[in-house]
Design goal:
374 residues, mainly alpha, Four Helix Bundle (Hemerythrin (Met), subunit A), 11 helices, globular
């Protein structure tokens, strides 16, 4: 009963944390769609206060000059560090970016949108820490679960530091991209930890029930479709790359919008460069690879994998709809965060599909090596 108790606690906190991270991604999309990313020019405080101001009278004198100087000083230190580590090109881009010396005008609505985003991020930091704490009993039961939980907690700390750099570099594209990529890595680690913890107690008991949810139908074997695991990896990596491309497209849209004073929204898509064309082409590749992998896996898949395949294909369909809406209906702001969140949910579903297939491969190998009298 004691084991069941800590297993349930870890499942609850790990799943709650993953859901919260997805919520943060959605809120982060709202921040970008509303242009609130620089609503607070400093970090972790907002205009030097723990409770953000609601009107310009509460702002420090000459706040634009003050926070621009602070940001430049911080970036100079960062650039020297990066250059010392051999990342000279990235160090140069920090100061080559045109918004480096531009301070955003105060807007109370945007300030509070950004600050609420930060509060949610801080709450998730607490959730990740609690997840790591409740994973301690896995030291004797299944150590990878503990290491994944601790790794997720440490990476969340790094993610918070990167968030401060995103602010100090005034939303430098490469910083935003790294920030998004690390968020996906944290999601993958916690998803795997939660999934492993969910099946682990039954495995310890020596039962095969943990494979019942994804066991192939009617005697199908993994060897019936060679290379399927490689294909699932490819689908996952292409989706990851597509999300990264999406962040770059988003950066271009922000630059175009700023240059146009956020007017003439219907003409923004036409001004996008080659990154948007590549992003659109890769979306076709993601669709084809997802459909083909589902076609190969469906005849073999058990109920759990079929459910994940159905979710993935549904998310691909919704992504296509959201993409068409953005491209042909003048980039409605409400669809932008939805588009990003759907993409990250697709990444999670594809990752769990890969994990489930690897579980069956391990199970099939175990059965093959099992003595005939067992």
């Amino acid at each position: 009963m004691q084991a069941v108790g800590f297993v349930r606690r870890f499942r609850f906190w790990s799943v709650t944390t993953v859901i919260s991270i997805y919520l943060l991604i959605l809120v982060g999309g709202v921040v970008r769609a509303t242009g609130s990313g620089m609503g607070c020019p400093d970090w972790p405080k907002c205009f030097g206060q723990w409770v953000p101001p609601t009107n310009s009278k509460q702002l420090p004198k000459n706040y634009k000059q003050v926070y621009t100087a602070q940001r430049v000083a911080k970036n100079q230190k960062l650039a020297r560090t990066l250059a010392g580590l051999g990342f000279k090109q990235v160090a140069g881009e920090i100061f080559a970016h045109p918004t480096q010396y531009i301070e955003t005008d105060f807007n109370p609505t945007k300030t509070w949108i950004e600050y609420l985003n930060r509060l949610l991020g801080a709450l998730i930091g607490i959730f990740v820490f609690v997840t790591a704490v409740v994973a301690v009993p896995y030291w004797r039961r299944d150590r990878p679960v503990l290491w994944l939980a601790i790794g997720g907690w440490l990476l969340t700390g790094i993610q918070g530091w990167l968030g401060s750099l995103v602010v100090s570099t005034n939303l430098l594209p490469i910083m935003v991209t790294i920030h998004m990529g690390l968020a996906l890595l944290i999601v993958a680690m916690l998803l795997y930890a939660a999934d492993r913890a969910q099946r682990e107690p039954v495995q310890t008991a020596g039962s095969d029930e943990h494979v019942a949810a994804f066991k192939p139908q009617e005697g199908g074997r993994a060897s019936d479709v060679p290379g399927l695991q490689t294909l699932l990896w490819l689908v996952l990596l292409v989706t990851f790359g597509q999300i990264v491309l999406g962040t770059q497209v988003r950066e271009q849209i922000d630059q175009i919008a700023s240059a146009a004073s956020y007017q003439g929204r219907s003409g923004w898509v036409e001004q996008l460069g080659s990154v948007f064309a590549v992003h659109r082409a890769v979306s076709v590749l993601v669709t084809l690879l997802s459909a083909y992998s589902a076609y190969l896996l469906w005849p073999l898949a058990g109920r759990r994998l079929r459910r994940l395949l159905a979710i993935s294909l549904s998310l691909v369909g919704l992504e296509i709809l959201a993409g068409f809406t953005l491209a042909y209906l003048a980039l409605p702001a409400i669809v932008q965060p939805v588009h990003l969140t759907l993409a990250t949910l697709l990444f999670g579903a594809q990752f769990l599909t890969l994990v489930g297939w690897r579980q069956f491969l391990a199970y099939e190998q175990q059965v093959r090596l099992r003595p005939a009298h067992a």
